UniProtKB/TrEMBL annotation:
Its cofactor is thiamine diphosphate. Transmembrane segments: none annotated. Heteromer of E1 alpha (BkdA) and beta (BkdB) subunits. Part of the BCKADH complex, consisting of multiple copies of BkdA/BkdB (E1), BkdC (E2) and Lpd (E3). GO terms for biological process: tricarboxylic acid cycle. The gene is acoA. The lineage of its organism: Bacteria, Bacillati, Actinomycetota, Actinomycetes, Mycobacteriales. This is 3-methyl-2-oxobutanoate dehydrogenase subunit beta.
Amino acid sequence: MTTETSPAATARRTLTEDQQIELYRRMQTIRQFEQRASTLYRDSKIPGFLHLSIGQEATAVGACWPLSDSDVITSTHRGHGHCIAKGLEVGPMFAELMGKETGTCKGRGGSMHIADPRRGIFGANGIVGAGLPIAVGAGTAATLRRDGSVVVAFFGDGAVAQGVFHESVNLAAVWDLPIIFFCENNGYAEFSPASDQHRADLRARAAGYGVGYAEVDGNNVLAVVDLQTRLVDDIRNGACGPVIVDASTYRWHGHYEGDPQKYRDADEIAEWQRRDPITLLGDQLRHRELGIRVDTIDAEIAESLDKAVVEATNAPYPDPATVLADVYAPRPTIAEPLRPAVGQLKMMHAITNALTRELEDDDRVFVAGIDVGAGGNVFGLTRGLAERFPGRVRDTPISESAIIGTAVGAAMAGMKPVVEIMYLDFIGVCLDQIMNQAAKMRFMTGGNASLPLVIRTQFAAGKSSGSQHSQSLEALLAHIPGLTVVMPSTPADAYGLLRSAIADPNPVIVIENRLLYGMKGPEPATDHRVPLGRAIVRRPGSDVTLVSYSSYVHDCLAVADRLADRGVDAEVIDLRTVSPLDFETVLTSLQKTNRLVVVHQATRDFGVGAEIAARAVSEGFWHLDAPVERVAAMQSPAPYAPNLEQLWLPSHDEIEAAVERAMNPDPLNPAPVAAR
């Protein structure tokens, strides 16, 4: 007589009958939820896109079975089953799919973005693979807190081709994070067979990254439970690090509802349906004379879901008055501090001091980025911090998407990450995590997600750094709702704005000018903080308003001194925060001077100056005595040759000429639109 030793058999011996019944109940709940969602979508009750996981119930339920409320999952666009398996209520989920106010995310997320961070559900995600670096952040938070929690990052086989898969698994391996990367391998990346997408399987990839690997029959929930229980226990006990799980399964419906499915045949679908995970467990339970309980569960679930659908259908849509709700979390009130007048402090040291103060004051703060630890940052701004705060100043691989995703996930998990992108030019490499994750997560979760994170980066032109290391891209970031973008011009503001950014409950991007790092200015008090979203008048005047930020504030001040010799009294405004824009301070000045000149290093078209000019015409038209002037870099990439770069950058003479045009407008000969 032989004894069955398969993982499923082990699970059957380990789990009680009640537990196996509960596994069945969870899978059947997912199945019936998805079936009703399909019908509701067909009947136009659900708008937008809908991606169903019918056939994949065992992976969701089995993977989440050993998880506690403190553990975290990240999901995919096919994430309903993961959410239900982690304990999310089906009634609010139906309402969310319908876009109702009673939805899980108040109708702001929809099918692809259901989340509840309070339950460790960090979200389904409409971007393939985007949840993986967020899982790295959640795993980082667990490591820093030493709380024993585990993260499960669900992804499909198609996500393996994404760069964030590589970055995330590699960083998790380097930091030895408590993460299970759980692949629901259903054989198709949208419409393409997996065999057409990859030349290396997950086993080979796991070996390459130096992480664990396990295969499992994803349609056998008992096998999945057995594997996941062992892995979760090992990770909690420190017996292993990150693991890739390859679970073979199949989606019965197409990639999306309405998919004609021309890429696979009926025989293939029928073969997988004969391996239905719910039927497999149900037959086993009936074989043990538990059929009555199984049939009762089916009826109970049907009745419960029918009731949930009716309630969701009758629920109200969001109040139109709340259309702008939850874009930003309420900011703490910070009073404008006294301007320091004594001492001499370099801007680079002001930044170091701000990071040091926040690391001292709040153990939720950590710093991460390329060479910020042992190397102390490429400009030496974090030198010595890794030794002073062990484990909280962390070097990363050159993986910008993983760096930003780590900040998103860690912030959602209750930490206050400060991450660095070495050059502003590199935001294009990780723009999804900034634009689609950090900026939108609070809004898409109906305010349930907290995103207190800071992204530090720097820029400058004028030292022949070339077109890929000289860009001023603040307007691109300022255009994204949900982000706050600050650009300090003095050491005191660099200290105060960075401290306020770290204290803020929203994602804040702090853009420093590297050519100002050596600049000296009065030293702020240790409790110095500068309010976000508020400009400051650096030089009062009555004849013309000059508006700028970052290094060009100093150029404007120098030009204002030159103008004073000619009897022109220029007021200089330092925006400090580019977004949200403090136009009230600009408008107040314009009401006094009646002339406006905006100066910035970025190229002119579609820039910050364009926004200020539009607002000036819209809100301050009757105060304007002349057209708004804009002075900016030429509309081309930054040249490398020193002589061309200096020609490309706006000069003092050009600023002064713009003021002259504003002071003496010639309606018969206006300045040409393409002057720069």
